[in-house]
Amino acid sequence: MTHLLSYVAVGLIGLYAVVLLMLWHFQERILFQPPVGRDMSPVSARQVRYQASDGADLFAFIVGDCAAGSTLVLVFHGNAEVSRWLVPWASKLARETGSCVMLAEYRGYDGLVGAPTYQASALDAQAALDYATESLNVAPTDIVLFGHSLGSAIAAELAVKTRPRALLLQAPFTSARAMASRMIVPGLRAIFRFISRVHFDTIARVRTLQVPVWVAHGDRDLVVPVRMGREVFAASAQPGELFVARGAGHNDVAEVGGEAYWSWLRRALGSPRAHSVTPAAAARTRSAP
Questions:
Q1: Are 237 and 207 in contact (CB under 8 A)?
Q2: Which residues pair with 145 in a beta bridge?
Q3: pLDDT tens-digit profile of 148-175?
Q4: Which DSSP symbol is given to 146?
Q5: Is 243 helix (H, G, I), strand (E, B) or coil?
Q6: Mean pLDDT, the chain, whole residue set
Q7: 9-12-16-17 Cα dihedral, nearest 10 degrees
């Protein structure tokens, strides 16, 4: 019996080691999930092309008029989306706010060559920002960064490198480590830093970020729980406004939130810079009816 228990223990340890090895090897494939095939559906937006600093070819869709002095919303989408799917949302955003919207794409998505990784995502985000400032001639103070889900972490990291007018996060997760702990692997949270190549930590970023941080989340989000959105907002050094869409999941905050959601966006894009956000505004939380 003793030998049998020893064999079982060794087997379980070996299985656990294999699981950890697979997580280490495939973690970025788990995080980045480009839709299979290329979506060739036409979009009512201008496509612009540019390169990352490592030579990777990238593109983005531009919606609205990027006139001098106008607000540009630079958008980073979630892990299983492509930027062209957001064109209808961006079109309404441009109409509602008069802003110009730039929907950035990642390498490995929508026909772009390359493998999406944590490090590559930073290069791709920086390349999109560089295009906005250098080719569209938009000042960083006229740029608002917007990220959904995975894109919220990418936007938060980019915001630390450049001071945008504001940072808007929809369905943000607190950190890659916290998301990993939701997987059914015992002890993963404790050893995550030893096996992870992904270091997204939105909580840490917003704690030091001296720009307004606005957060929207669905209270029935089963992918990224709403408590994470609340935690990100609470940790922000310059909180803007938290909007919780009652009954919304991970991908339908705009649809379920309705006019209250668009009103939240209009306030976010019309808000002054961080130094003039009042304590009353900072503490504000709204919910869709």
A1: yes
A2: 74, 167
A3: 999 999 999 999 999 899 999 999 999 9
A4: E
A5: strand
A6: 84
A7: 60
Burial class (CB in 10 A: 0-12, 13-18, 19+), 160: middle
CA pair distance 244, 2, nearest whole angstrom: 55
Instruction: Quote the pLDDT of residue 33.
Output: 87
Amino acid at 38: R
Q: How confident is the model at residue 70 (pLDDT cuts 50, 70, 90)?
A: confident
Q: Is-contact 78 103, C-beta < 8 A?
A: no
Q: Which tokens sit at 89?
A: 């949302």
What does the pLDDT look like over 182-227, one tens digit per residue? 555 555 555 556 556 678 999 999 999 999 999 999 999 999 999 9
Beta strands in the chain (DSSP E): 46-51, 57-63, 72-76, 100-104, 143-148, 166-170, 213-218, 239-245, 285-287
**Which residue reads 């929809």 in tokens?**
170
What tokens does 104 get? 């950035």
Tokens of 208: 């030091």
Residue type, 235: A
Amino acid code (one letter) for 199: H
